[in-house]
Amino acid sequence: MAEITLSHLAHSYFPRPTEDSQFALKELDHVWQDGQAYALLGASGCGKTTLLNIISGLIRPSQGQVLFNGKDVTDLAPEARNIAQVFQFPVVYDTMTVRENLAFPLKNRRMDPDYIAARVQAIAEMIGMEAVLDRKARGLTADAKQKISLGRGMVRRDVNAILFDEPLTVIDPHMKWELRTQLRTLHREFGHTMIYVTHDQTEALTFADQVVVMHEGRVVQMGTPQELFERPAHTFVGYFIGSPGMNLIDAGIEGTRARIGDATVALGAAYGTLTGRTRIGIRPEYVTLTDGPGLPVTIRRIEDVGRHRIVRAELFGQPLNVIAEEGAPLPSGAPHVSFAPEKINVYADDWRVEGEAA
Amino acid sequence: MEKTVNQKAWFLVLPMLVIVAFSAVIPLMTVVNYSVNDTFGNNQFFWAGLEWFDEMLHSDRLWAALGRNVLFSAIILAIQVPLGIFVALNMPHKGFWASFCLVVMALPLLVPFNVVGTIWQIFGRPDIGLLGHFLWSLGIDYNYTANPLHAWLTIIVMDVWHWTSLVALLCYAALQSIPQAYYQAAKIDQASRWKIFRYIELPKMKGVLMIAILLRFMDSFMIYTEPFVVTGGGPGNSTTFLSIDLVKMAVGQFDLGPAAAFSLMYFLVILLVSWVFYTVMTNMDKEESAR
Fold it and tell me: Residue ranges of the ABC transporter domain (chain A) (predicted)?
């Protein structure tokens, strides 16, 4: 188990990168604590797999260092870093039995046979595969195979970190919950440092202590699920997390008020003079439909998703989503909306601006 | 629901049956006809029963040819399969050199069989052949027309040159289909090179290897053209394989009865061996998925 330090790390797939856009991973500087579960979240091509491969040693970064417990491992190959990795598609050795699969990493390290047997038994219990230990891995289902990969990752007790590269992609939805819960339990029990790459916000938010959101090769925010929800540091985080994402509305910021079209709304804090494109961000959960007062909106469409309804509306020509309680009556007259002032975030050129207490 | 019975469907199969009859069944039946009759030309046939079969089964000549052919197939398989795998493992995976290797490897497979024979027949000649002359200049008394061992070596090397690419290309295709993650996982598991081969590459190649072995067995067991061009079955009878002997008997000596009996038995042997191969292959598959 290890603390992972990423020091001035950046990577480009070009041999001599000259401009910022050529970097698949832009410079970052982070310390990831020992025993925490991290999720790297972002859309495809945002650099999250590149970052994971740098940590595992499959890619050597163009600049900067990776340190495990203060020791520089940048030039070490994956097998020398003492890490485990679970891949997107289950990697099992088809011709071996489940037992041999689980024992493989230990056997290759010439561990004591008694220890191997005990350890394999323990892991098999954890992943719930004792019954099939002597079956060939070949005929098993995809999720059983992925459990074996998972088990092979956990079988070594002393790994520095366990890395997951979108491990639930090929798993049936109902099994995803089970496997993710199992992962959480394993993490609590053993306290490995875990890094989990995914593009699925639910997976990231339920799995990790800290979610690292990446966008266009940059880490735009690192924080707890709560922080990402309440105070997205970047408009991408607001948009990417939540279903539907945060409403972003072009607005002029004047002290403690924001001007949208002809109307103004109160903000929870005071802001100085802002430059660039200024927007306010408000989660659909914090928008309330009223009969007035408030801002006038036009309702375009209502989607019933079961536990609540999503109201697609328009506010001075800009789209606005509202989450309304299931069964709550819609305004009978001209619909208006009001925002919870303390839940409004202000963005200048996509980055969040911290306000001062009003 | 009741099934509709419509016997008219058989008419749709008819054209195919006619084609197969003319292309396979009728020619085969003429061979059967020859094998149980004695003929002196003029389309006069005299019933001979199983006499030719009996004669052929007790013919030293046939058993000797069979022995040579089995030995040849065994040597060919023992060389080409491991060599093909080795070549496939060492071929580049992508880029210019991958395409280059593929083209070069495919070349011998595209050369007509009798041309392959001619190439090697000339290549091995001590007076004008590159190989033959080179060996002579080294002081080696190489002569495939007089020395049975040299004849065998020449034919084996020629067949290896001609057909190893087939095994290699099949294995290469199988290797290319292994996702990179397997190698990465094996690295992290600290698997040795041998274990990567044994547990990742070989299982993936197993299917195509079986096909390759089957193809190479059938081809080498029926080999005719190349040794016929290079050695003509000589020196003596030392490279006379089954099909060469068969042609000598049928076309050279015009012993149509014995030759027909011989070719039917030959056909059955190949059918039998292929069936055994096939059964073993499918059983291995079943066993593994059943466990």
Answer: 4-241
